[in-house]
Design a protein that fits this description.
GO cellular component, one term: membrane
Strand content: under 5%
InterPro entries: Na/ntran_symport (IPR000175), SNS_sf (IPR037272), YocR/YhdH-like (IPR047218)
Membrane topology: Multi-pass membrane protein
Bound molecules: phenylalanine
Order of helices and strands: HHHHHHHHHHHHHHHHHHH
Helix content: over 70%
Protein name: Transporter
Number of strands: 0
Largest sheet: none
Distance between the termini: 48 Å
Main location: membrane
CATH topology: Amino acid/polyamine transporter I
Mean pLDDT: 88
CATH architecture: Up-down Bundle
Oligomer: single chain
Shape: globular
Length: about 475
Amino acid sequence: MTESSSAAADSAAGSLPANRGRWSSRFAFILAATGSAVGLGNIWKFPYVTGENGGGAFVLVYLMCIAAVGLPIMMAEVMIGRRGGRSPVNSMRLITERDRLNPAWRLIGVMGVLTAFIILSFYSVIGGWAISYVGVTASGGLAGQSSEGIGEIFSGLLADPGTLMLWHTVFMAMVVLVVARGVRAGLERAVKILMPALFVLLVMVVGYAMTTGHFSEGVAFLFEPNFANLSTSGVLVALGHAFFTLSLGMAIMMAYGSYLPKNVSIAKTAISVSVMDTVVALLAGLAIFPIVFANGLEPGAGPGLIFQTLPLAFGQMPMGSFFGALFFILLVFAAWTSGISLLEPLVEWLEEQKGMNRTISSVVAGVACWALGIASVLSLNLWSDFAPLGSFAMFEGKTIFDLLDFLTANILLPLGGLLVAIFVGWFLSRQALENELSMSARGFALWHNVLRYFTPVAVAVVFIYNLT
Ligand code: PHE
């Protein structure tokens, strides 16, 4: 792609990051896509859902979902974006018009916008937990704390709607600020330094975990599959989490794909992003489970897991308050870049459809999302016994926060992915796909068949098992 055509694609796609100057577009893409993919999903969610679903067998199914469902769909999404060269809704419009397909396919974009909105509402609350832990660790209050003490700090946070609201507001404001000003290019460049730093700190915590004497227990928990521990709903959670962690099923990768120059291999690029994302998640697991076992904690402790384990590690290691604060700062950055990618689709949609300018649409979207987030804040304390759909066995005991998470990760994202797989696998011409992907004949056939047959069937089967 030449400078001018890539600049044209940039402006057509709104104010997504510009890849100019010495930044090759492939690199910019990898930064942006990794920034979106690596976030709370890897460090906060992966360990706790693994713990709740019994470990090894869950991890194995999750890895299979990444490779056989997530990766092919990521390639499909990136491909639509590059072929359309515009924002997701416009790319879909262009492709459906050019290939004379039913315009209803554009609903994939609309559904994605809605899903992203719901996810961001609770993502911001958890982002807020991470911000508050920067202070908790930096203050040095963790040194020598027992696991009970650390558990109390965490339950104290959850019990306090005011503090939760404060940090939820701060996180959302950070996201709105960047989206409104369209300055994400700067942040994404910072990711180039911050992500490796996060990686190094994770490796450090894994190093600490090795000294706890329970490392092999942690490794066994993560990697020794025992299928007796995995329920059918666990399989759905693994599938849903594969979509969540790779930011799939809501057109985000389509938006980023519009920046990818024609001569870059979509397959290789998608593989790099998926591998990096998976490595970060597995490292988080390796860091956390040995600490869980060494301290007699419960692997299935739920969403608080990392906030009850990592502080123990930082409380015990030399310079722990420094490294702990640094770790949570980096986690906030990882969550920030993901949060931005969650708000962006709605802002773009408001600009396109309602003709609002960028600042106004960012503020409107952010405030609406923030307001929905209040329900998640309250479901951690005042409404913690309120299970709106509790009379259905499937939703028993699920608070609003749990329901929003379940609805998005386990239903809307896989559904979005399923539609992308069917659209690309069955409705776009094989010739066009071959041109766009320019892979070896074998690689292409593998991808195409997986996308046409395996992915839709796998998602459908998991759905049917769980929803009936
Ligand atoms: N992938 C991000 C994470 O793992 C979360 C996210 C989901 C971001 C969906 C964008 C879209 O934290």
